[in-house]
Amino acid sequence: MKILLVLLxxxxxxxxxxxxxxxxxxxxxxxxxxxxxxxxxxAKEIRINQxxxxxxxxxxxxxxxxxxLSNKLYLEYKDYLFxxxxxxxxxxxxxxxxxxxxxxQYDSRIKLATIQLSWGMFKETFxxxxxxxxxxxxxxxxxxxxxxxxxxxxxxxxxxTDENYNAxxxxxxxxxxxxxxxxxxxxxxxxHFYAAAYYxxxxxxxxxxxxxxxxxxxxxxxxxxxxxxxxxxxHITDDNEKRNLITVSAIADIRSSTKETLAIFTLxxxxxxxxxxxxxxxxxxxxxxxxxFYGNKLRVMEAxxxxxxxxxxxxxxxxxxxxxxLTFLIIVLVLAICGTLIIAKKVYDRLKVxxxxxxKVLEQNQHLDQMNKKLAEDAIIKEEYIGYFFSSISANxxxxxxxxxxxxxxxxxxxxxDLQNLVxxxxxxxxxxxxxxxxxxxxxxxxxxxxxxxxxxxxxxxHVIPKKTEVLNTSLxxxxxxxxxxxxxxxxxxxxxxxxxTIYTYxxxxxxxxxxKGDEFDKMIMQIKFSNPDDYKYANDGxxxxxxxxxx
Length: 552
Description:
Number of strands: 0
Shape: rod-shaped
Structural class: mainly alpha
Largest sheet: none
Order of helices and strands: HHHHHHHHHHHHHHHHHHHHHHHHHH
Low-confidence stretches: 1-19, 535-552
Helix content: over 70%
Number of helices: 26
Strand content: under 5%
Radius of gyration: 46 Å
């Protein structure tokens, strides 16, 4: 596995820009290593237990060996478990004070401040820094001291964005880093690593990258060192290689049982931004597990916030379902560093947008459905009335033909009496009544509940009830024509052979008594339900339904 990792770093990473399968392969390796992390953690626990056993067996007066073993335990716990690392740093301080040894005292206090900084204890960290005098330290400790100071001021500048202090913190961090570079041995890991960090701070990415890649080519790097180099190099490379480097860093962290790490969390956020929610959830959960195990509350909060964002994004995708348009419109949630409340607010805003768009689509579908129903209704009404008028016109033509023959016969016989009888046989009033009666029956066939629905708009004392000899009366017939879409008073007057003023009077009389006023009454008339005649052809017992049954 070690040979494979070296191959991936030194050979495959430089061509990662042109090879997306490399990213997938590295991600697969990482996920496999996550499932195998207990193996690495168990090996670490074995080393720790052996050291603790050796420390327990060390003579009480052998302070140097106690310091040596406690220091090894600190190194094992440093990026693994905060509480235990803190215990052994305090133990180192106690032992160094009892020896006494000034160099060991400073070394122990630097170690204590280092883990305090990793936990986010800025006040305690800077208290420790200010209490130490670098002039009294050997060069090997000065490197660690200035390294601590550089990281401390760098993180303080990251969290403190106030422009009045931010520039000073960055300057102090860079100055301390410069001291680390000057004090480190040429060609050593420290010289390359901190020189790269120094150039990166100055914006000289090409020089920084050269130092980082020189480190990756070293044979004796530990897994933890590989993780740090790959992670820092990722900040100055293109997107494709950036992901691969962070993945390599995360793999190395798993193999070195490093719990105080950013790599796997950074990779999880990157996959989340790329839309790979499944793998992002796996990695961020692992980052949360690592931070919880180590005891870093700040990282736990950040990972919890990011995990909430991933779960919220999955919920949004579930809400949008198969609607691809909505999927493209949903933008990636901005990862919240300031807390869960900001993420919750952004999730709420996203869900609100989705619901509004779904409501708009539903409204449009309902509108189309109403239009389709209206078209179907109009088609059936036209079919019924066109059929009726064709039949009526055909009958009228037949009557005219008979009338023509009778008149031709009378003209030939010149019989005035027969002509008078023929004229008397034409009953225009009856024909009009037949026309209205047929219209009424066809209308109630299409709107069987019209009379009942119409009267619901009026007080009970003012209900319009047709006479036994009528199907519809003039008042009902006027509003029946309106329900069919004929709204002009002149057109209604022509059909019913009345004056416009008469039609207006009928309308005014009905509307003045209605339970709803003005245009609302007309809207309610237009909302009276249409029924497909095919649904009313047969009564409940299967016999042919009558017009009275249509009305009920």
